[in-house]
Structures
1.
Amino acid sequence: MHKDFEIHLDDISKMEGHTTLDIVVRKGEVKDVKLKISESKRFFTQAVVGKPALSVHQLVCRICGTCSMAHLTCCIESLEYALAIQPSEQTIKLRELSMIGTILRDHAMHLYIFCLPDLLNKDSILDFDESEKHWIEDAFRVKKAGNNLATIVAGRAVHALYPQVGGFSSIPSKDQIKGLVIELKESRDSILDAIDLFYNSPLVFENKTDYVALANKDFSFVKGEITSSNGAIIPEDEFRDHLHSIVIPYSQSLGFKYEGQKYRVGALARLNLNKSSLSKETRKDTNKALSTFPSDDIFDNELAQAIEMLHCVDRAIKILETSEFKEELPLRVTATKGVGIGVIEAPRGTLYHELSIDDQGLIKEGTFVIPTSQNQISMESDIGVLVQKSLQEDTEKEEIEHKIEKLIRAYDPCMTCATHFLKVNWK
Amino acid sequence: MPWILNKSSGNKNAKKKLVVGWFSFTCSEDSTIMFLELLNDSFFDWKSKIEFRYCRFLKSKNELKDLDVAFVEGAISTQKELDSLKEVRKNCKKLVAIGACAVYGRPASQRNEFDVKTKKEIDFILKRFGYLDKVLALNEVVKVDENVPGCPMNTEKFKEILNKYLMEFKVV
C-alpha cells in the first residue's frame, strides 16, 4: 500500500451523535490523528445560569437522549449536596433502579445494535438472516426490560418525570413491580448468550492506560468513592485537583487527563477496579468471563458492558423483591446559596456535575465533566497506535478504516453529551 | 453528510416498501432513542414495510436518494446543517419534523436568548465551527409536511403519521 495517504471518516455510523476523524500518514508513519467531535453545541453550561435550582434538572437532562437519566440523577445529587439535603433510603433505591434501567437499555442498544453487526460481519441488524434473528429478539427483549424499568420507576425512560430534588413524585405499584421482575428474569438467558458471544470476540486492541471509576461494595451506579487504577481514592470535592481539562481546538469537546495521563472511564474501568462487588448471582454465572479483568483491551469494554447488563438484572430483581415502596412526598426544599457536586457512573463512565446556587435560589454557574470527553484523548491515542500497527502489517486502507470504526465503537462514545461543555478557564 | 451511492434492489416483483430516511441535527437525539424503543415491538413488522435507505444509527451504507419520507430531528444551528437539510428536502417527497427542536427550535435554540455578555463569551466557538447567528426550526429553512411535537417526540403521533404515509404511498 502507498505509504503517504490520508484517512477521512465523516459522520461515523452506529454511534450516539456525530463525529469525524482525520488521519495523516507520511512515509508509513502516522503523523496526525484528529478525532473531531462535530456534534453541534447547545451551550448548556451557559443556559443553566439564572435558572431556578429546584427545576434546572429538567433542563440539564436534555443534554442527551440516551444518557438523560444520568444527567438528571447527577444534577439532583449535586443540588442536594449544595442544599444539604439527605434523601431517604427509598429515594436512593428508586434512583438506583432508574439508573439500572437506563444502563440496561443503553448497554443493550450499544452491544446489539451498534457492535453486534461487526461481530457477525454484517453492516446492520437490518441485514441479519433467519439464523441470526434470535439476536434481534434478544436485543429487543433486553432493551425493553431496561426501558420498562426506567419508565415505571421514573415516569419516562428519556427525560424522566418523577425524580425531584428531595425525592420522587410517584412510586411503582406492587403489580408493576411483579411485571418488572418477570420481564427482568426472562431477559437473563439472552444476556448470558451475549456475554458468551463477546467473551469469544476475535477483536483485540491493547494499549496500557489508567482507569477511573466510582467504586462501592454493591456495584451501585449512584454512589461510591472515585477510585483510580494507581490506587488513589479521590474525595468528590477534590476532583478538579486530579482531572485536568485539555482544549482540543478542532473538536467541539474538551479532553481530560488524570494526573497528567490519558485514562479511560466506562464499563471496562468499573470492572477493572471493582468486579468483586458485582451481584453474587452475576459473579456465579460469569466466572470465566470475569477472569478477563483487569484488562487493557478496549474491546473488553463490550464484554464488561454485557456483564454489567446481567448485574443490572440481578441487582434490580434483588431491590424490587426485597423492598416495600411507600407513598413518600418529596422533601420540602428551599433553594438557597450553596455549591454542590454530584458524581455518578453513567453508562459510559464517571459523570460529574458541579452547580453553584446564588442567594435568589438561581443557578450561578454549572460545570459538567462528561465520560466521552474524558475518553477522547485515550481514543485518539488508541487510533494512532492501531493505524501504525496496521501499516506495519501491510493492511489495506479500507480495512484500516473499518478497524478504526470498530475501535471507536468499542468505547461506546456519546458525542451528543461530549460536545456541550464550554468552560475554557478551568479554575 | 456522506452520500454513499449504493445499488437499489431493482427487483420489480418486490412488494412496495416505504422508503425512509432518519436524520438528526442539533438536538439530544432523544427522539432517535424513542424510535429505537418503538422497534422493541415493531421491528419485524416495520422491516417488512419500510426500506431504511438512510439511517446512520442503524447502518453504515446510507443513500440520500428518492426517499418517500424523511424524518428529521433537531434544529439547524450551522451552515453545514442548513445545506444538509436543503439536500434532504430535495431528495424526499415528504418531510416530517420530529421532536420539539425540529418543530419549534427549542430547547436547542436556547442560545438565541442569551444576553449580550454570554453571546460574546461563546462567539469564538460560533466563528470557529461555522455556526449560524441564530438556531432555526426546520420550517424556517424548508417546507415541512408534518410535525411530531414533544420532547422527546410523542410516539403515538409518530405512529399515526407513519401509518398515514404507509397508506398514502400504498404500502398497506
2.
Amino acid sequence: MIPDVFRVIGSDRCLTAADAEAAGGAHPLTASLWEVYAQHFRCFTGATLDPQFQYLAHPATKTGVVRVRAGEVVLVVGTGPSLHAHIDALVRVRDHLRIVTSPRGAAALASHGIVPDLVLVEHQSAIHAHHTARTFGDRGLSVLARCPLVAADWRTPSALLSSVAPTDLFVPSRLPTWGLWPATAVAVALDAGASAVALLGIDFDLPTAPDPAHAPLRAVLELLAQLAAAPTFDCGAGTFERGWAAARLDEIGGARVWGRLDTEVHPAPRQSQRLREARGALAELGPILERAAALEAFALKARSHRGRWTPALEAGVEEIMRWREDRRVRVLLQESLGVSFLPRLWRIGIARSVGGALWRPLLLATHELIGQARALSWQSAEERAA
Amino acid sequence: MASGGVEERFLDVLRRIGREDDSIEHHVLAFAGGPLEAAYREAAHAVAIGCDPETIERHLAAPYDLAHLPFERCADRLMPEIVARSAMPVVFGKGYDMGGLSRLDEGLRWRAEEAMLAACDAATFTAARLALGYDVPAGHTTILGDPADPRRLLQALQAACAAGPYWRAVDR
C-alpha cells in the first residue's frame, strides 16, 4: 500500500509538510515527498482541478478501487518507443501480466490485438482532456468500449466515455494522484496489491542528457519505487537512476491472470447530488465571491489608470492572500470552482515591491475566480434543467 | 522546441524581428528541448532549456525589459510567477494553440486563459478571427496577421514596455 501522505500531498490540500503529515499520517519519506512537490510542482500539482466541471455530467454510477490477486504482476503501459520495440515480447507474456494503460495506450495496444485489463483515464489538464475526447471522437475510436474496466476520474469529459458500458465504468475513489497518469497508475497498482509493478513505453531520455519536461514524472516514479513494498521494474528504455530495475518482460511475469480484475465499488453520488453540492459550494463561498468581484472591479480600474492606488492594491492583495488561511475556502476554491491561479499565488507569494503593477496578480486571481463561479452557477442551472 | 507547431512559427517571427531591428536582444526560455533547438540557438542571443524553479528564478531576476509568452501553456506556467514577483511587462501571444482552436471550433471556454488575457500588459493575436473569439480590452490587443508581421509585433512589444508608469527602464 502507498502511504496516505502521498495522496494527501498530491491533492494540494496542504500548505506545509507538517499539515500533510497531520492529514495523512507520519512517514519517514514525507520530507522527500515534499521536496519533490516543491521542486517539481511548485507545491501545486493541480491534480484535483476540474475547471470545466466535468464531474457534473460524469456518466459513472460507481466509485471504488481495483484489487489484484495474489502473485499477479501489473504492467503500466505508455505509448513511448519502447512499447513498439517490445510488442512481440508483450504478446508472448500477456497472460502473465495485468495491463493498465491510458486511452491512447489502449488504442496503441488494440492495433496489436491486446486488450488491457484496466484503462485509467486521467489528464494533466482540462485542455488535454478535451483534446483526447476530440481526437477519439474525430477518429471514431471506440477502443474503450472493448476494455473490460475503465477507471475515469471525475474530470473526464463525458464524450470520451460515451461508448463505455455502465458496468465497465467507475470513478477511482481516493485516487493517489499527482496529476501524471503513469505515476497514478503505478500507485493504483501498488494500492491494489500487485506483487510487482513494471513499466513499458514510459520512456525518458538518458540521465546524462535529461529532458526537463520529464523531470516531474521521473521524480514521482522514483519516489513511488521507494514507497513500494513490491519490486518495481522498467521493461522499456531502462533509464531510471533509482528504484526501477531494468528487466525484460519475460523475466517479470507473475501468476497466470484470468478474468476481469476484481473491484470493490459502491454507488457514486448521483448527478442530482453533485449539483446540490455545487450549489452548496457556491452558497458557502458567497462572501468570498462578493469580495472577489469588488477586487476584480478595482483591479480593472487600476489597469486602466496605471500607477495609482498602490496602497489600495496592496490591501487587495493582502486580502486574497489571507484566504489561504481557511482550509475550507482553499478546498472549495480548488475542488469545487477549479480555480488555479489563486492557489498558486498563495504558494508563490506576491512581492509588495511589484508596486503599481499589483493590479496584475490581483486581476489574474479574481478574474479567474469570478469567471469560474459564474460558469459553475450557469452550468449547474443548465444541468438541473436538463 | 518541437517542429511543426507554435514553436516553429515563433522561430520564424524571431528571425524576422532580428532582421527588422538588430539592437534587440532575445533570450529564449524553453521548457523542453527538441529538433528546433539548434535553429533557436542561431536566431536568439541566448537559449535556456528548463522548467525547474532555479531556471525560472534566474530569469525572473534578470533585468529583462519585457517577457513575451508566445502561447498558452508557457503563459499558464509563467504568468503567475512573473506578475507575482516582478513589474516586468508581460505580452501574451495568442495563436491557434490548443486553447485557441478549442475555443473557436468547439466553444470551449478556458477561463484561466481569459484571466491571463486580462492580467497581461498587452496581447497579440495571429488573426482577427481568433481575437473575435475573446473578450479583450480595447487598446490592449494587436493583430499580427499570418504570417506574423514582425513590425506589428515590435510595436506591440514597445508599447507594452512604455505603457505603465510603474515600469522602470533598465540600463543595460
